Amino acid sequence: MKPKFWFVIAGMTAVVALIIALVTIFSSGTGVRGYVANHYTRATQLDHRGDDDNKAYTSGKAPSRVSREITSAWKPISQNTDGAGIYLRYDEDAVIVQPRKRGSVIHVMEIDKAYRHYHSHVGGFWGWGSPYGQSFRGRGPGSGK
């Protein structure tokens, strides 16, 4: 067989391998959202109504253990714990782990929606007074400098 044939076969094999790698990466999800989806049981009945981005999951483990598993895999920017749950803040998402029967319910949602929904629990921990849990410079002449 000619060498050109082997180059074509090698090229086709590389393309197939690239497609398989991309499908694997994007189907498993990346970040904390993908981690939670791959490690806990989806519970659509526990999603917050009216928030299409909110995804609820359950685990038979205690909230503290679930939180340790998640933070071991994905380090949060901020973390707060109170009697109602554990609140993990990431760049774009928040993970809220709360007790439920003999285990936990885990909510994954956009950070701004989580901040508004759980403000009474995270208000003094996730931000400096901005309604979205972020500091904001530019409130007028001379402020924030």
Structure characterization notes:
This protein is an alpha+beta fold and 145 residues long. The protein has a domain at 30-122. It is 39% helix and 23% strand. It contains 5 helices and 6 strands, in the order ααββαββββαα. The protein has helices at residues 3-28, 31-39, 63-73, 111-117, 119-122, and strands spanning 41-42, 55-59, 78-82, 85-89, 93-100, 103-110. The protein has a 6-stranded antiparallel beta sheet with strand order 1-2-6-5-4-3. It is elongated. Residues 128-145 have low confidence and may be disordered.
Helix content: 25-40%
Cross-sheet strand order for the largest sheet: 1-2-6-5-4-3
The run of helices and strands is: HHEEHEEEEHH
Shape: elongated
Mean pLDDT: 79
Count of runs of 4 or more consecutive helical residues = 5
Calculate the terminal CA-CA distance, rounded to whole Å: 71 Å
Number of strands: 6
- Overall structural class, as computed from helix and strand content, comes to alpha+beta
- Give the low-pLDDT segments: 128-145
Beta fraction: 15-25%
Biggest pleated-sheet summary: 6 strands, antiparallel
- Radius of gyration of CA atoms, rounded to a whole number: 21 Å
